[in-house]
């Protein structure tokens, strides 16, 4: 091979090597630049990561503080609400306890009232049994009617208007005598209580028993009416009628509801049957009659007093006329005294004038004193 070719080949190789070296150097520079750029990017990224981490740390701290604050506020709110709930529960428990105590107290009070009512019921049942025993005895039943009659009369009339167990001219004693003026005159009230026949009437189970008990009841009423008419209607001593007092409203209602014939017979006998209610109404009417009678009795006294008052007025008028005449004479005397006083005053003035004139004439002693004739006073 020729030397020039070798040299050219060597040169070419050298050029190739140089080119390769240059390429390697360029590549190395590029790699270094890329490495530097990568390092700078990594540093920047690290800085950004550090900043982000710091920011995140601050945000986390702020979030932690906010969370702690919210937690503390939530804790306070929960505590306040728990306190309020506890307070409300306590108040409600206290109110419930008070209501329960009050309810228990009311319950005890009502139980006491129930026990007291039970005692009263027991006493009342005992009294009812005693009343039944009293009403089973005719004498005791009569006394019961008289006591009830006495209570009604005493509550309705003044004591001067009645008398109990008054003896009449025939020797009979009236349960009550009402002192009415004539007419009609004193009226007798007699208490009757046909309890046996009434109980038989109420206890009758069939029509036959009821009819028989009804006849017995009407007969008992008629007997009482006849006895009262015979014993207590006395011409010239008592009124022309009398009152039969039935102490039971039930007996009175039964009589007027189902025994109209017995009531009519009592009217014909001039015996008026009354119950406690109708007797009170009757006595109120009697009280009005007594009041009217007292007013009529006082009318004469009032008229006499009025006539005497008129006489006193006439005497007073005469004395007033005399006094007026005396006042006129006194007025005339006062006028005359005034005239005399004026005359005396005028004469005193004249005397004073004379004295003044005498004083003026005193320096001239030779002159004789004038003689003045004083007027004569009449």
| Proportion in β-strands | 5-15%
Distance N to C terminus: 223 Å
- Report the order of strands and helices: HHEEEHHEHHEH
- Largest sheet properties: 5 strands, mixed
Helix/strand class: alpha/beta
Total number of β-strand segments? Answer: 5
Number of helices: 7
Identify the notable features of this structure and list them briefly.
alpha/beta, Trna Endonuclease, Chain: A, domain 1, disordered C terminus, single chain, 7 helices
Characterization of this structure:
The chain has 378 residues and is of the alpha/beta class. Helix 2 runs parallel beside helix 7 and helix 3 runs antiparallel to helix 4. The chain has a domain of 164 residues: Trna Endonuclease, Chain: A, domain 1. It has 7 helices and 5 strands.
């Amino acid at each position: 091979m020729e030397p020039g070719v070798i040299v050219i080949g060597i040169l070419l190789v050298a050029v190739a090597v140089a080119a390769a070296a240059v390429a390697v150097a360029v590549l190395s520079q590029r790699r270094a630049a890329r490495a530097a750029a990568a390092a700078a990017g990594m540093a920047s990224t690290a800085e950004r990561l550090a900043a982000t981490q710091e920011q995140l740390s601050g945000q986390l701290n702020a979030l932690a503080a906010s969370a702690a604050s919210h937690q503390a506020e939530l804790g306070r709110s929960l505590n306040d609400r728990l306190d309020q709930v506890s307070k409300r529960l306590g108040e409600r428990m206290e109110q419930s306890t008070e209501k329960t105590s009050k309810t228990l107290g009311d319950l005890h009070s009502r139980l006491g009232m129930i026990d007291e009512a039970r005692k009263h019921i027991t006493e009342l049942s005992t009294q009812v049994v005693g009343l039944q025993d009293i009403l089973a005895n005719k004498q005791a039943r009569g006394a019961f009617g008289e006591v009830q009659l006495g209570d009604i009369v005493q509550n309705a009339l003044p004591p001067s208007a009645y008398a109990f167990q008054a003896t009449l001219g025939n020797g009979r004693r009236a349960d009550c005598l009402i002192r009415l003026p004539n007419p009609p005159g004193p009226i007798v009230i007699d208490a009757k209580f046909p309890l046996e026949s009434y109980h038989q009437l109420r206890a009758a189970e069939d029509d036959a028993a009821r009819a028989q008990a009804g006849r017995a009841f009407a007969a008992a009423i008629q007997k009482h009416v006849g006895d009262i008419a015979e014993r207590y209607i006395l011409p010239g001593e008592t009124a022309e009628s009398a009152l039969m007092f039935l102490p039971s409203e039930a007996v009175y209602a039964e009589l007027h509801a189902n025994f109209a014939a017995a009531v009519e017979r009592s009217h014909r006998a001039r015996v008026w049957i009354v119950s406690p209610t109708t007797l009170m109404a009757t006595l109120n009417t009697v009280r009005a009659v007594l009041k009217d009678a007292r007013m009529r009795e006082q009318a004469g006294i009032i008229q006499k007093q009025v006539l005497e008052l008129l006489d006193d007025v006439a005497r007073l008028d005469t004395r007033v006329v005399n006094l007026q005449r005396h006042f006129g004479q006194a007025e005339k005397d006062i006028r005359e005294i005034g005239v005399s006083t004026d005359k005396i005053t005028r004469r005193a003035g004249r005397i004073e004038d004379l004295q003044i004139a005498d004083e003026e004439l005193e320096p001239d002693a030779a002159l004789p004193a004038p003689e003045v004739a004083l007027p004569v006073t009449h």
